[in-house]
């Protein structure tokens, strides 16, 4: 009984942290991704999602860590365009969620990084700390396919006969 209660509380904490909604210091932007202290991998996607609360947001997004600093989006989209962004209704107000899928360069080393959301209109920066794992190149796919494929002599043809009941 104790174990099931502990497991339930643990799952609630995990699901609550997965539903992050981080508001910037100037209260002009809600950041839903990347996750605060999330772990990502070089060579894969870094998802960035944000919801402008005010139409006066002018947004630049950077990834910074170690010797690397990359501008992910300069003058990022903060429009209220329902054709390109997902509308979200909160208390009879409609906001628009924006998403960017940034491919982290494979040359980035493992370590601690920051996703910096800069609102140039208010002069406010918000940093989301993340961890980055080093790029691991995929194994040689051609050798895997070659060893998994059967040789011509091993291939046989099988016939299947389906018996049907006779009519009496």
Number of helices: 2
CATH class call: Mainly Beta
List how many beta strands DSSP finds. Answer: 10
For the sheet with most strands, the description reads: 5 strands, antiparallel
* Gap from first CA to last CA: 62 Å
Low-confidence stretches: 2-19, 147-163
Using the coordinates shown, work out and report the CATH topology.
Immunoglobulin-like
Widest sheet: strand ordering: 1-2-4-8-7
Any descriptors?
168 residues; five-stranded mixed sheet; Immunoglobulin-like; mainly beta; 42% strand; 10 strands; disordered N terminus
Question: Could you characterize what this model shows?
Answer:
Residues 2-19 and 147-163 have low confidence and may be disordered. The protein has a single domain (18-137), classed as Immunoglobulins (Immunoglobulin-like), CATH 2.60.40.10. By secondary structure, it is mainly beta. Strand 5 and strand 6 form a beta hairpin. It has helices at 2-18, 141-148; strands at residues 22-23, 29-33, 38-41, 45-52, 59-65, 68-76, 86-90, 93-103, 111-119, 124-133. It has a five-stranded antiparallel β-sheet, with no helix packed on it. It is globular. The termini are far apart. Keywords: Signal. Residues 1-18 form the signal peptide.
